[in-house]
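Record type: monomer structure entry
Structure origin: computed from sequence
Chain ID: A
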Amino acid sequence: MATKTKATESTKATKSKKATGGTKKTKTDGGMSCLDAAAKVLKAAKEPMNCQEMIKAMADKGYWSSPNGLTPHSTLYSAILRELKAKGAEARFKKAERGKFAATENA
């Protein structure tokens, strides 16, 4: 009977871990995401910026810093393009010129 209880507790723990997403970070864990920080920086800048400039501005203002990534600007660039493709007109970013993005009114 004790074995059945232990197995049930183990199953409950596994189910609750799956329900909460395992060990994924939530918004309350550590501040804003890289995309949220980029949108905030672009909105404040009022001018188009490339991803390297955005990464530097986000770190300088303390919004977000790379967790030891070698190319955070490339990751940000890809994330912005994914948002543009997925959200279309509802995206927080728009391409201003080659390699540069600006904030939209949705940001």
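Annotation 1: The two ends are 57 Å apart (CA to CA).
Annotation 2: Residues 2-20 form the longest helix (19 residues).
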